[in-house]
Amino acid sequence: MRDTSKTENKPERFTVAEIASRNAAAGRHYFDRDTLRFFNQKRGDFRVYHVGGRVFVYGKGRPWTLGTGSVHVWSIAEFDTTDSDLRSFDKTTHGDLLPDSLMQNHATTAEDIRRALAELVTGKGN
Questions:
Q1: Which domain holds residue 61?
Q2: CB-side exposure of 2: number of CA atoms within 13 Å?
Q3: Is residue 5 domain-resident?
Q4: 87 CB-near residues (< 8 Å, 6+ apart)
Q5: d(CA 113, CA 123)
Q6: Given this model, what pLDDT does residue 89 score?
Q7: Could you report the per-residue pLDDT of 74-123, keeping only the tens digit for each?
Q8: Which of 1, 12, 41, 98 has the fewest CB atoms nearer than 10 Å to its CB?
């Protein structure tokens, strides 16, 4: 008999491909070709971060030219495992949960994003 005691309480882990497939099957459009094109991104730009039983996807957009410079905008969304929706983090839906300076800063790294999400989920660092 196989010992499953170590895996029974582990939350399910997802890849970007699995999330994209489940999102599309649910009739949602987060990773649709046209959506990604509009935001100047590719599916390969995204990574998955699992923290505190929650699942997030994040990806750095390619540079947008604004005025005299360019800006990289991060896309960050939480994956709802019950309905396969991806809920984006932005000022409209999440207020000040993640600062604009983090999401719209050329120098922001993937580690900065993961640290901010972990602090958001655990409540540490506030």
A1: 16-122
A2: 4
A3: no
A4: 77, 78, 80, 93
A5: 15
A6: 75
A7: 788 999 999 999 988 765 555 556 665 565 555 678 888 888 888 878 77
A8: 1
